[in-house]
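Good morning C.,

I know you're traveling, so I'll keep this short. The sequence:
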Amino acid sequence: MDPKSEIDWLAAIAASQDETAFSSLFARYAPRIKGYMMRQGVDATTAEELAQEAMTTVWRKAGMYSSDKGNPSTWIFTIARNLRIDRVRRERVFQPLPEGHNETASDDEPADVALVREERYAALRQALETLPADQLEIVTLSYMDGLSHSEVADHLDLPLGTVKSRMRLAYSKLRPLLEGLK
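The tokens, ready to paste straight into the viewer:
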């Protein structure tokens, strides 16, 4: 998913309460938020409620989104996380952890980081698919297999200049397609 379209959706919601844009955001994020909540130990019903509440907050506060503070997924998951924290604070008085549970942070990758990573990989795969086979082969050997340009030339039985030329052509085709990735 292109983060720019998500930014456009948020802008449309903020400007004119565009229900189509909200529907698109809701379909994309509500299930992910629910899954994130359930991985945090929230029961399915509460996770559904929190996802609904998070998306309602996105609807109301879409005008507050700023791309300077991160991508839309980070902003949306932060809203969801904060709502979960608020819910826990309201509902529970201090409860000690059961025996045998350490109070250490999870090693799991945060959901918003995983989502951004997957979006980057998808964009990279899509960009690589646009390359001609000869350029793709050189990029693959160089970056996936870790071969130097000389080793690629030896492997493919091509002159070194041809390998470098194809690599430059591949760069020039990939650069505009991947400029937005960080």
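Safe travels,
E.
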